[in-house]
User: Fold these one by one.
Assistant:
Number 1:
Amino acid sequence: MSWKTIDRNQQVVDPKAPPVLTEAVREKIRSFFPRYETKRAVLLPALHIVQDASGHVSWQAMVEIAGVLEIAPSDVIDTISFYTHFWTEHKGKRVITVCRSISCEVMGGAAVLEELKTRLGIEEHQTTPDGKYSLVTEECLAGCDHAPCLLINEKLHKRVKPADVAKLLADPENDRIPVPRSDLFDAPKDHGAAEAGVGTTSDVQEMREA
Ligand code: FES
């Protein structure tokens, strides 16, 4: 998300509104407590869990996360506003992330971005009215030798030219990569190991075996 100036006198969360975090989501957040020395340290996993469940992290969800972790809501806002990965409003079914770093810049990334803006009719960090696409820019996507690059959800597209944009947008299968996503932020499966403070996800397992 981008930086926002907030009027602190304006209430953004109705204290009488029903909760937005389900008990299952709260339980999943709590399942991470044994892995860390403090509840505060579970903030990033909590944000991933809530965004995975709802597609975004609303202002009210931030307040409720703060309640589960026993921290101030401002701590949650400080963290979420630092990472462009997190959304405070609904995002599109597909998120297009255009690289804005130097290799892609010199190879024509800006022209690709302009073509996307024109075809989608939106600016950066906006979502099309039909909810199909959101558009953002990020620093290096780790495909510099194939610049310019962009991501559509999880799939990296390399050496993209403005003329390719229409074809990319027309392809309904353009957002998948043929490998499973990381389960780093999934709840621990082995409660015994979790209680001992040992992560059980494949990522952690790989690090231990390396
Ligand atoms: S500079 Fe664009 S992928 Fe690295």
Number 2:
Amino acid sequence: MSLKSHLIDCYRIASFPARKWNFAKLKQAGQVPIYSMFYHRIADKHPNPWSMSRAEFEQQISWLQQKFDIVDLEECQRRIRSGSNRIPTVSITFDDGYAENCDYAIPMLIERKIPITYFVTTHNTFDQVPFQHDVDLGQPLATNTMDELKEIARSEFIEIGAHTRTHPDLGKIHDEARLIDEVITSSRELEAVVEQKIRYFAFPFGQRENLNAAAFKLLEQEGFLGACTTINRWNEIGGDPFQIARVHGDPSFARIRNWLSFSAELDKQPHFDY
Ligand SMILES: [Zn+2]
């Protein structure tokens, strides 16, 4: 264990009574918030900041199964909308569309009957072009093929979601035609390939500065059920169910346990205003 992980664990254990008290209060009030997690790539080779090893992933998923009800995004939204929740709840999502997820993570999740939403960038998968963020690291990595996406989409536990055409920073796109192409047209093309209605969207990068109010409006108008961000926070019961904040599936188990233990620090950042 690294020194940093050790320090996080010490902090988590020292603050355990406060967290336990906080959780008890939330539970009593029927206000236990909903977590959503996002992962990218599960693989043992070519580690980078958006990958984690098979063993790290297995450890996190097993822990989540013990501590949480793992549900799909639609059930998360139902619990948010209901105005009352006492069950620790999490949903699991993946962004981008990396080929290696088909080797271990996806079969493992299907075997455990864990629902996931798998957000795909169409240009990089359909045209087999590595992501710029991997090229920039000098490590172009394989993306899912169209055939893999079709196969994944056939599982009853996997819903395919949209993640734009070229993975741009949508916070910087103000041209309406470009925005429609990245957000809507590419989603319709994905729909045609996987032969499944695309109901959810995840903003590339997903931090506050990468979000776009016009894109939120377009998604609502076009009948999407929700849009995911990466603002590191939980989702309050009774809050806006359309905008779903997600916690990074960090390789550090200590950090994940710290974030997902109902510590009040996870609701400090506001949602995006659109
Ligand atoms: Zn992405």
